[in-house]
Amino acid sequence: MQEISALETLRAFVAERNWEQFHTPENLAKSISIEAAELLECFQWGGENLRSAQEELADVLTYCILLADRLGVDPQAIVLEKLKKTGEKYPIEKARGRSEKYDQL
Amino acid sequence: MQEISALETLRAFVAERNWEQFHTPENLAKSISIEAAELLECFQWGGENLRSAQEELADVLTYCILLADRLGVDPQAIVLEKLKKTGEKYPIEKARGRSEKYDQL
Amino acid sequence: MQEISALETLRAFVAERNWEQFHTPENLAKSISIEAAELLECFQWGGENLRSAQEELADVLTYCILLADRLGVDPQAIVLEKLKKTGEKYPIEKARGRSEKYDQL
Amino acid sequence: MQEISALETLRAFVAERNWEQFHTPENLAKSISIEAAELLECFQWGGENLRSAQEELADVLTYCILLADRLGVDPQAIVLEKLKKTGEKYPIEKARGRSEKYDQL
């Protein structure tokens, strides 16, 4: 894993096309939702198309990395930080083997 | 950036709670859409709440990393692979400074 | 407005194609999210394409009517029923001219 | 079904709260995506919560009716209009019993 190189490649790709102007946090958030739905479409009618899912996941991740960059945060760091909070809401002994929301455990 | 450590922390978190059973590709795809919408909610009425956005982005990323793991692919690798295709659809000279879709450039 | 005729036209359309088998509540819910994102795409980069928006809105509505039918409820009735609850969470004197969530008013 | 009365009730509800200012087509489109994801959440881990689904569907429908009103179109009319196009893309003899997209039939 070399996040930095992916980020730098993405930054260069965007800069060459002069696309920074479109990449407000709000527009990137919309784009993440849009690509997430294209990913969901791979499972729309109960089957699954994992080859397409991989490509759509790449699109979601791309906009996530760009939004993290725009917010000035590191993707891995915010994932690990959030995981601590999630761990408090879902302690192992209560959450084990259950898919309910924390307020219904 | 240490993706591997985030991935391993996530894997342990999931395993301790015996949650692998819920993490089918389809359920993870649904979860990515659900969290993406919570991110979008930070911008629902035209304002922006960037502090909340960071937390919701973390949730989207978490499920993306778990889905990539489930599909057996590396998040960075699929982002870079997809970027090549995007570059072909959006050559610099045509796409520069424009937000139209490739078929309308 | 003749909801009944739209519903009956939709039911016939689905029956002729033998598509009821795909229209589980879950698959319809996924389809609503997918079409909602195509609607959002009309506003992705800050502009707006209202002609496309109308078509995508039609797709969202189509799946909503089918899901209501599947759940055995009337679309108008559940809208009006929910509005009562929303009115309690957002009393006029507190909510007037404000876009905050009810727990922040 | 009395769409007109639901629409008029919604219009009054919005006007009393002076919320028209927030209801741009884009904000309504975002709201539809956000509520659609809350609907999807009723099916997140493979189970289903149909009682919640009904309430979330009501929210999606509410914003759909408001957006149609904002676009100056009738919900039923655009559904029926779109259905004609869909019928051309999915002729009965080709689409019967199949869930593939029209370009893969």
Question: What do you see in this structure?
Answer:
Chains A, B, C, D: This is Nucleotide pyrophosphohydrolase. Chains A, B, C, D: InterPro entries: dCTP_Pyrophosphatase, DCTPP. Chains A, B, C, D: Pfam families: MazG-like. 4 copies of one chain form a homotetramer. Chain A has 2 domains: 1-73, MazG-like (Helix Hairpins, Orthogonal Bundle), CATH 1.10.287.1080; 74-105, no CATH class. In chain A, helix 2 packs antiparallel against helix 3. The first copy, chain A, is 69% helix and 0% strand. The first copy, chain A, has helices at 3-16, 25-41, 50-71, 75-89, 92-95. Chain A has 105 residues and is an all-alpha fold. Chains in contact: A-B, A-C, A-D, B-C, B-D, C-D. Chain A binds chain D through residues 30, 33, 44-47, 99, and chain D through 30, 33, 44-47, 99.
List the helices and strands and how they pair.
Four copies of one chain form a homotetramer.
Chain A (H helix, E strand, L loop, with lengths): L2 H14 L8 H17 L8 H22 L3 H15 L2 H4 L10
Helix pairs in contact in A: 2-3
Q: Enumerate the spans of chain A where pLDDT stays under 50 for 5 or more consecutive residues.
A: none
Cα distance, first to last residue of chain A?
36 Å
Helix content of chain A: 55-70%
Estimate the strand proportion of chain A: under 5%
* SSE run of chain A: HHHHH
User: Tell me about the biggest sheet of chain A?
Assistant: none
**Number of helical segments with 4 or more residues of chain A:** 5
Overall structural domain count of chain A: 2
CA gyration radius of chain A, whole angstroms: 17 Å
Considering residues with a beta carbon less than 8 A from a beta carbon on another chain, report the largest interface and each chain's count: A-B, 61 and 61 residues
* Oligomeric status: homotetramer
Quick one: CATH class of the largest domain in chain A? Answer: Mainly Alpha
Q: What's the name of the CATH homologous superfamily of the largest domain in chain A? A: MazG-like
